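FW: tagging you since you asked about this chain on Friday. Here's the raw sequence from the shared folder, copied in full. Didn't touch anything.
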Amino acid sequence: MDRRRMTAIGVVVAAAGLTAAVTLPSFAGEEPRRAAPAADGIAPEVLDALGRDLSITRDQAVRRLKTERWAAGTVTKLRTELGADYGGSWLSDDGATLNVAVADPAAEARVKAAGAVPKRVARPVAELDAVKSRLDAAGADASPDIAGWYVDVASNSVVVVARPGAEAAGRRFAAVGGTGAGPVRVRTADEAPRPLFDVRGGDAFFINNAGRCSVGFSVVGGFVTAGHCGRPGDRTDGSNRVAQGTFSASSFPGDDWGVVKVNGDWTPQGVVNDFNGGTVPVNGSTEAPVGASICRSGSTTGTRCGVVQAKNATVNYPEGTVTGLTRTDVCAEPGDSGGSWLSGDQAQGVTSGGSGDCTRGGVTFFQPVNEILQRNNLTLVTAGQQAPAEPPAGGGETAPPASAPPAPPAADTECAGQVSRTGRIAAGRAQVQPDGRFFRVAGGAQEACVAAPEGARVVLELQRFTGGTFRTVARADNADGMAKLTADTPAGAYRYRVVGLAGSGEYTLAFSAR
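HL: got it, structure written out here
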């Protein structure tokens, strides 16, 4: 069962029992602190890195990222519409053309209508995935001369990567997987993937006063990183050697993800260190397609960019096989492991391992971040959550007082309160209400509800300003189109955050305190 899919619930925080009178004053606040302005919403550091590593101009980088955002949504739509006939998708080398493979010629018209180029193939992607799954099952028998294997949608095949001189070993492994010679091809490459243990990525952290790895992305309550960096219970210190947190979960080999829960001295922020004196904002986690440009941050080699070569790749590390990784042509070196991968402003994954270096070039693999979030029921921290240094004592812009007529709720709902706001939400996006600001209460009960768009899934979070940032103190998921939340809270500054998990459309938030 999806742990985030639950019935509409009431949530009561530990401060229950406070009964002080409460009013809803005029809203006072400032716009949350955000990253520096960027061209077309794209951080200049990302554009500079793309220009350097892909040999393109800044305008070309902007156009490419816009095309990739369009392609991501188009692929999601076509994959659903084509069903069993879907053969995979990839962008052209220049990132300008979206190619979509189809196993049935009758599906080509639908691909053209969506603005993509159809490519007729013999095998749907589900067949290729099944072949790769058989290889995964035989992975324990793989020779050390086998670097890994992956689905290559552009060639409509499964590729087994063998080291030079080990082609025979590659063919034997394909046979052990029971695949025959049809959809599998063996290619040689001087690759020897390994986990990059001695690393600091987005930001360095130390494990048990010994190993060194790097932060991948901030999540509510902590951060995600590579699983080979630590095991549950391992203690972490920050780059300043101050006690930071504890590994609450990890998986390696098989997967390569880890989750660290931080203590109250650390505040997760929705940005990535660009190792050039600034930061890059993280505004969601929409998955980029094969062929999309992508950038990695790591303390050894800084920010490096390239393109996505394949998804659902298996890597045969000395410690064991890891499946479900994404393969890229981005270089990396020891000291980069565990770090952040971004496509534009969208989080993609955390560095697992690779082969080569940034002098000769190489191949690097990352663990997709959405799988980490889903497997561990985590919420990604985004740049839109950045808080002011402290809530102002008063003044500033004000929203309509509680007596103002509320906006009408969505049809066929019972979502109502003293104050109402509407907005638009989509998967991977979040909005702060009311109007990107916060409000103050004297302490007591707070109630809120969200009428979600039809077919959409959202999370409603109540956040309190504490420890220099807004922290979630209560949350509820929607069921039957509605998310309801109640909490008894102490006096302070609060805001609501609506997070999209699936679907899109207009929502209505209504809330009150008494």
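FW: Residues 88 and 372 are 23 Å apart (CA to CA).
HL: agreed, and The chain is about 15% helix and 40% strand.
FW: great, closing this out.
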